[in-house]
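> @MW can you paste both from yesterday?
MW: sure, first one:
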Amino acid sequence: MALDQQHEHERIKQERGEMSFFDHIDELRKHILRSAIAIAIGGVLCFLNKDFIFDHVIFGPRHPDFPTYRILCNFSHAAGLGESVCFSPPNFNLITRELGEVIMQVLYVSFWLGIIMAFPYIFWEFWKFISPGLHEHERKSARGVVAVCSGLFLLGVLFGYFVIAPFSISFLAGYTLEGLEVAPTLDSYVTYISMFTIPTGFIFQMPIAAYFFARIGLVGTALLKSFRRHAIVAILILAAIITPPDIVSQTLVGIPLYLLYEVSILVVGRVQKRREKQAAEAEKQLIESEKRIQERNEEEDDD
């Protein structure tokens, strides 16, 4: 009898389209496997083109003809500032101290570039896994989330690569003491490049995180506005740490980060207005329902 009830319960769940715990685990495994394959394909492509990747991408901020240096110098001349905004990285050599350092760094770079290249697909797989558990109105309100998240992530990586990395490398490589020669290891250089780019891609997810936190009621516009001054101070400190000691560099890094914070406030404000509107409509429907019930009860009493 118990087995019959169990089979009947499973049949009802299948008819409703429900999945068991192990069905979810199996589905998650498939999404993870496909994402891992996408990362592997991107990583293999980068590994096979390691010479181009390192010469033009990883070592790009070391070269004086890097686009950021040229654009800033052209802007300086066009604005009549002369050479005041022009700068270029100091000449320094990279060394290796361990026998397998080169191959390990090539694999490291290939892996992370594979993740960056496959990020839109990875997030799409993640969204396909969680979206069936959402309500229809939740799926509609989150329409386009894959494109927005992927775009913000790639934009953050590009910002870290073209803005933060050249300023930081120029400052760190040029900061030395008398009698010392700056000769960082390949491991150190690649680690810093990774720190300047990949975390920035996740930092640029701030508006998306604010949207979902606002949806569940954890943050509001009043909270974010009350911490605006603290956010400005934190952004200025961060910009001062990762850029050379001049106001132009700090401004170029600080303004986009501050704009992200303001965009997050706007996103939270829109979510709040939508929630307030839905709450007002729900309250109105409740009042109308109670009114109809009361009228029906009065009619029954009259009868």
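MW: second:
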Amino acid sequence: MKKLLLYVVVQIFMITSNREVLAQVLKPEQKRIISFYNCENYYDTIDQKNILDEEFTPNSAKAYNKTIFKLKRKQIAQTIHELGKQEQQDGISLIGLVEIENKYVLEELVKDSLIQKYHYKIIHFDSKDYRGIDVALLYHPIHFVPYQYKPISLSIKNHQTDFPTRDILYVKGQLDQQWVHILVNHWPSRRGGASTSEKRRLWASEVAKVFIDSLKMTDPEANIIMMGDFNDNPSDRSLLNIPLQNPFFNLFKKGYGSLAFNDQWSLFDQVLISDALMDPKNIITYYKSIIYRKNNRIETHGRYKGYPKRTWSGDQYNGGFSDHFPVSIILKLKMAENPLK
């Protein structure tokens, strides 16, 4: 009887141990998802003082009401939810958002049922943009702990004062206990033409470059992540001026883009990283770049067939997610050696 009992105990132990080993083997590799998304006019429905947001109010030609606002919020939440499922992961670590009006719309977003369980936190400052659109960062509090954050103004030394634009959002913090520096950008548009407006993006580029150079001077091995809608392609002078690696350059050379205009694709939405994040010896290391292009985000008919399905076509509500595809980089976490020992 004792021998039988001992045999049963041993078998249970072996089964339990094998299950634990199997669980380790089958567990998805730990990665971190860093995303960026131009939301295309995520406004509240209130006419804010000193901001040109009247077109996004109930009495405007767009008839922008609470119903449309809630649909827009749900689509952005769905985007964040889907991005967080890439590479069999459970939630994004960081996402930069642009074309958002204020903190209120972000607070409503993170409460959405699709992403509420992640308890995403918000970093946001109001910008000087005449339309009131800002940049922001959402972060997963289990993955990332912020230490310092501030806006970096582009309206200095008499530049951009004639055309107020979005600040660069700078955030320093720990991603899986590794110090990282994050810059969220929405550079001046191509309004008036690419050549005419280029000087504004070159100035934004120079401001960013000077700041990045200062980070590298303090720490040559700094982990730097610079994301944004740069309103320029990876091959344009403004992006080539940035002293970081651009993992989206190869996608651009292959003809991929994040938005389309006049039947031409552009890759304005990008995530750049420092050399340290390309080093396989680093705790967190670059793995891949993704333009998140899914069928439900692509226009299926009409003038913009094949383009990202936009929310608005002039004043006509089109029901799409955004006129930009979201983008991501995937970082790998360095695993401990012999984890089963």
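> thanks! Helices lie at 2-26, 66-83, 103-110, 194-218, 237-240, 249-253.
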